Amino acid sequence: MTALAYPSNGLFSPVASLNWSTDRKTLEKESSSYRPRFAKPKVGLGTCYKIKSATRFTPAGGGAPVYTDITEETWDGTADPGDSTKGIGALRTLAVPAAEGETVVGWYTDPSDHSTFVRDLYGVVCYGCA
Prior knowledge:
Mean pLDDT: 74
Shape: elongated
Strand content: over 45%
């Protein structure tokens, strides 16, 4: 498994949040839509890829973060019609959290240890498909 960073070419890092103002009169909500992107040579020469990611929800005002693994996505390696240099997985939506706080997308540098979560990473496995 290769852990790759989201590119820093002006694309945003996926984030969703729900926050009340200090006076509790204003509620701010944010959601995101995003696609994992990577240059095909970085992950190998196969024709199919598995993309893995996770979310980390951090409650407002402190508390332990909550990690949720996102179901693995298989991508056939075909490029987005508007971008011949990057591989693109399916469009994903990061919904506004149900509780006050912030959710970000990332992956683990050690998938067996959630404390190694790094924002803006995702895991990619290259393999041959029939």
